[in-house]
Sequence to fold (1374 residues):
Amino acid sequence: MDEPFVQLVSDIKTELTYSSSQLSRLKLYNSAKWSAEALWGMCVIEPTTSFTDFSKMDESPLRNRCNTEAIVPQQSPEKASPSMDTFEYNQYLLASTLFDCKEFDRCAYFLADSTHPELLFLKLYSKFLSWDKKNQESVENMLTAKDVKGVQGIGNVNGDSKGRESIERFRDYEAGNNGHHKKSADLDNGDSTSVPAILKELNQYLSENREKEEEVSVGFALLYYLKGVLYKLQDIPSNAISSFLSSLSLFPYNWTCWTELISCITRSDESLLLLKVLNEKLTSEKSQIMLKFFKLSVFQEFNGNIDDFIQELDYLLLIFPRFAFLKTQHALINYHYMDYVSAGLIFDQIIKLDPYRLEDMDTYSNILYVMQKTSKLAYLAQFASGVDRFRAETCCIIANYYSAKQEHEKSIMYFRRALTLNKNSTSAWTLMGHEFVELKNSHAAIECYRRAVDINPRDFKAWYGLGQAYEVLDMHLYSLYYFQRSCALKPLDKRMWQALASCYEKVDSIDESIRCYSRALQLSLNSSQDISILYRLAILHEQIKDIESCRGYMVKCVEAQEQSDGLISDEITKASLWLARHEAKHKKFAEAYKYALNVTHGSSQEIEEARALARECRRRMD
Amino acid sequence: MSRGETPSQHNSTLAVSPVVGNRNLQMQHQSQQRNDPTLHNQGTLGNQGSSATQTLPGNQGSRNLSHSHRTQTPHHSVTYSPLVQKIQNNASLASLATPAPAQNHGGSTAGLLASMTKSGLFGPAMPSTLRKVSATLDPGRTRGVGQEDKMNMDDLLDSNQIVDSIDVTQLPAAEKLRLWRHDSLMQHQYRTAEYIGDKVYAMTGDPNDAFWLAQVYYNSGSYVRAVELLTRNNLDASSVMCRYLTALCLVQLKKHEEALDIVGETNPFQDPLSNRVKNQDGGIKLESSMCFLRGKIFAALNNFERAKECLKEALQVDVKNFEAFDELISKNLLTPNEEWMFVASLDFTELGDNDEFIKSLYISRLSKHLNLDQVRKAQDFLIDEYKLENNTDIIHSHVDMLFTQCKFSKCLKLCEEALEHDEYSFTILPTYISCLYELGGKNKLFLISHKLAENFPKHPITWFGVGAYYMCTNKISEARKYFSKASILDPTFSQAWIGFAHTYAVEGEHEQAISAYSTASRFFPGTHLPNLFLGMQYLLMGTLQLAEEYFILAYDVCPYDPLLLNEMGVLYFKKNDFVKAKKYLKKAWEAIKALDSESKSWVSIHTNLAHSYRKLGENERAVKCFKLVLETAGKDTDTLCALGYVYLRMNRIGKAIDSLHGSLALCPSNQTAQELLKQALEVNLLTALDDNHPLMVSSQIRQQSSSLENRKRTANKLDAHAMAKRLKHGQNSSDDELYDGDSMELEYTSMQ
Fold:
């Protein structure tokens, strides 16, 4: 290991230590967990170097303490913040315990007039949580009520429509109550908390205390973070993004902030711009590391250059060899590229490394489902429910298991359970949609997909599912739009273009359809092999009377057969027949004969016709 | 009995000495010359044609007399009153059973407290028609003196304690009885007072005693008996004071016509030269009180124009008549402008040192729709100079201001602070209840209405609170019941009337709502709200002409209310006069600018403004407005639908479809949104899938980006802010533009 690298690693170590302790002090548990996990997964270097570097850290308020109590640096942050006086510290202690006991309203009450940024963060955060909790409770009541009805409905023969009804009722309920609940949660006392109110206070404070930002950077960073979260909730992504950016430039070691940032962007071009900005903004080595993590996540969502990705991943794996998060990213990328085997292998490694980690295990169950490893899936389901039965991930795994066993009703029930536990799980909504499709309940499926895209408009599967479901319902205008959306998210996926093309074909826009098919053909890995696209293209060209091109594609179709290992599909038969007819018409009997002979499979009618043609041609040739 | 010491209409009842005994005592103990002027006056009684100028010396005399009384004699009836006992704690603690009269009497303040008069009710200052003198005066008087000795023993106990001031024993018997009667009246022992008063009257036949007996009757609520007593002896014809009392009783009996006969339809003392006679005793002029009573009667007879005039006159005659002022303001008899002009015209100089004080107090009660700076100045003055920051009325002024500005949550907080000092402050409670209703605080409404119902079952505000609670919980018929109960208890309680009308409006019963609102508008000519609501009802019914008329009426009363301006905007919008609509909505927007954006009115004004932009074809502005509404008020199906429509018109198909989807997600049965979505999707289909199509462009970007390895290094400079702006711009501008720009930029960088 060379010197700068060691230096970098120890720098990152101190940063992560600091961030983990600060974040858990300020109750951002998930971020703190991430930092701690990262710290745990780092490569080991000699303790001596790390020690000296500890005390080298400049801005950290820990510096003094590290010098004196260098042996127990992890304990010091408990009483950390620089500008907190005794009174404020006592206030913090009270608020912190109340927060831990989940008494959010009380916590906010006791911090009512605090001006310290960290205390203010705690106050507003607990206000927000209290609001969120109350909202969720009202939804949960609905969900549990629905659960019963949904299951009953599915038990019936006419379960489909009932399932749909219950979901729609759920939607209605939310829509009807949004006006009230979304706006404010109150105790019917006249004083209420609402997101705009919290935002107002936050903005006021931030604009008044701009100059203090440097002193208590963590506090301010978290305030900005909260602001971003609230703006996101208000559906003002641009403001949210700028808040997150300010937060990250003050304090980059806050992983949830990065993830929130990703969730604010919906299109790939936006992601490119964002990365560009971040590259310039965060230039220091320490924040570069976080940026690399961020890039990995962005890649998962929007794709990009795979080589870049691998490079970054390798670099990070060098520093964090035992970090489960990184491994998961690796597995996910394999999953996205449909390399299920290696993805599964990586997941196996992760389980060995950290057996009780349930995060992303639902993805693993998806992989197992696709690979049809039912027994392994069953084991995973048992294991997960042994770890924690009431985790959304566990429920998803079990749901996948039931789906693999073709017990779709049960599967849906478990997906519902997962959604009760975590209403923002997109994949659960999407998968539930798939289950409803299996049950031929398009309407319910549509509702599920819709929920999924409401939560996460970057989920191309949900958009695609929507398109398909509407296609089944013969509402092609709708399905066209949804396919367009999914295609915009995955412009390099030929399936999207194919779907789009067939949709255009159904609404008689032949030109567009041809364009889409050609695009799909371009994107196809071995374009000369994609018989179905070629055949569709030929047919479409025939429809617009471009016989020449049509013939070209037909020929390609037939040629493709030669390359494939003699597997003869329906399309090839039809193409051959068409070519035979075409050539016969143009008096090229030799070719026609050849093509007609080619028709060996297909319906009896087709074979009959081919034979007739062949006979005719032979006769003419002679 | 001294006839000369009569209160004229220029005096308050204070002008005559409060305690009978003292006066008589003085009469006897002091030189006969005291009686001389009064005797002289008595002589003038016969002169029926005496003019006002002649009465003046008499008045002056009486004033002197009363002044001397106050300085020389104690008012021991006052010291018996519980109020004074509190002040003189040392005296009352010793003997609670029979409160001892204090050694050092309360002086002039005590005199103020006991504004009771016994003698000198009849005088020459009366208009000639009313001057009828009862002949029984003198015999009664002598009889009283004759019986004096019999009563000596009864008063012994008291008299022993009054060491240095009065020797009760030396009083004549009738005087002792009068003292007794008076004291029991002060202690609210009406039956004793009635019993003794009756006896005194029977003994003396003195009209003064009759008057006092009537007072006792009035206090004990036997209004009919009081009237009978006063009219039987024609007292009401001969004394202003008695006339006032008779009229008051008749008002209490709701015999308004008769009361009006007694007080007269116009002020008989009106001075055409308007040179005011100064009242120096600091009390309220009887003339003013009479005017006030007249005003109340007119109000009860639904003649609000006259009522307003009378009340104004009452204040012009005597600024101290707060009740008249309160009636004018709280019953909304004056429009905001009139209120301000009227108070500016009042003459406060009579109050001497207190003129600024009282003026500020009055100003702080005026309408908060205009001259806010003056109100604030008055409030600050009262707080700084007089330390009144915790006074309920000052807080009420603040509360009112906040309520007018629709800052409900702040207002609620302040109300709660005020109610901590005074839990049942009836000045604060109506606003408090309205605030709770606005904010949906049904729990607190429940509590307060229960408390009120327990403690004040007969107060209109109680039932107003109950009605508001039911309104909040959406039990309309219950709410209506209680609102009507409140308005029956007090027909001049405007909030209850309007609440009552609202119950019909909520249920969509336009006809009934209109009749209720129009009653309210007749009752409360000073407030624009009933007219505004009337206009809104007509607007709902589609009768635009009538609606406009009512709105204009309301606009005349109060052109500052953003709600009214908003409604007028809506009206012109409906009349397809979008330019005018925009004008009014902009005005409303100006008015509401300073307000919190959470309030409902803020949202509706912005929505309406956005719609008129949409109609005027100012698409960009419309979009901006709609987005602002969505950002502040949360998602709403109609707003999203309208936004989708504007986008569709601007040919931004993607955005249009997005917002229409959002609209349908909230309300799947939104017909308009469905139609529009269908249209948008058709347009989407027709959009040629050429190289400019977003899909094509995005896929090109994607390809380029994955082929560009060094792209990041050559990236342009961009800071976070510009970035956010860009992204926002990306949302605002059409997809095509953005994509074009991006791809161009990317090409540019790749060339480098």
Summary: Strands of chain A lie at 185-186, 192-193. The two ends of chain A are 82 Å apart (CA to CA). Chain A touches chain B through 70 residues (CB under 8 Å).
